[in-house]
Design goal:
Length: 259
């Protein structure tokens, strides 16, 4: 962490001076809680499966029981994982008195909510929620019975409430995301690959609107060259140190250099 100390201090000054903050997180954030990413071989989540069979509407309709059972196994695995210090640090940042704070995550694992984040948009959905396939009725409680997958009262099969390949993101959610990004002073990007759109385009949108961009990742990504501060570190350690720095600056009244 000492190698990134200067970068963390610079990032803390930016965040301490900000009034509107957007945080974005990706699969690298969850990896530290033990949830494998899609792309990190040899432990990649898709390594033994064809994504087109397991994460598309067409694949689901070809074999609903296969997809349902695979997601059930994923839920069981994810349920054993817990938020780490980085999740908790972001949840605490939300309480620091910013006039606007929004967390935008690509992760479907519910760990940010478990850590206490509430100003949160899960743009790819949540694996612990369900909806029916045809009419998108939200399902609060899964019906009892032996049918796999179970069916909604409308007769449609029930599916995970996640965004599959080829599906559109929720219009209302994305409208709120783009409004927040256009107005923010600082965007903090954590654990993303920088190649999955539209999330990968948000840092550039923020920069073009005049915001400062901070990135935390173990390795440089496609968005690193466009950031104001790049912190090469695991999320948990860096976010804990960053939160400590922000709290000290705000408590001392020294908010650093304003943009």
């Amino acid at each position: 962490m000492s190698a990134a100390r200067n970068e963390i201090q610079a990032a803390a000054r930016l965040l301490a001076a900000a009034t509107r903050v957007v945080v974005t997180t990706g699969a690298g954030m969850s990896k530290e809680s033990g949830i494998p990413t899609f792309r990190d071989a040899p432990s990649a989540l898709w390594a033994d499966y064809d994504p087109m069979e397991l994460a598309t509407p067409e694949g689901f309709m070809r074999n609903p029981p296969l997809v349902w059972e695979w997601y059930a196994q994923r839920r069981q695995m994810i349920a054993q994982c817990k938020p780490h210090d980085g999740h908790r640090a972001i949840a605490t940042m939300e309480t620091l008195g910013y006039s606007e704070f929004l967390l935008v995550t690509q992760n479907i694992d519910n760990l940010h909510r478990e850590a206490g984040s509430s100003e949160l948009i899960e743009i790819h959905g949540n694996i612990f929620r369900f909806k029916c396939f045809e009419n998108h009725h939200p399902i609060t409680n899964l019906p009892e019975g032996d049918e796999v997958p179970p069916r909604c009262q409308c007769g449609s099969v029930i599916r995970p409430d996640v965004v599959w390949f080829g599906e559109m993101l929720d219009d209302n959610d994305m409208r709120r995301v783009y409004e927040a990004v256009a107005m923010c002073d600082v965007m903090l990007v954590v654990g993303t690959s920088g190649i999955v759109y539209p999330a990968a385009g948000l840092p550039a949108t923020a920069r073009s609107a005049g915001a400062s961009v901070i990135e935390i990742n173990p390795e440089r990504t496609a968005v690193s060259d466009a950031t104001n501060v790049f912190i090469q570190s695991a999320a948990g350690d860096a976010l804990s140190s960053l939160l400590e720095g922000i709290e000290k600056l705000r408590a001392g009244g020294g908010n650093g250099d304003k943009r």
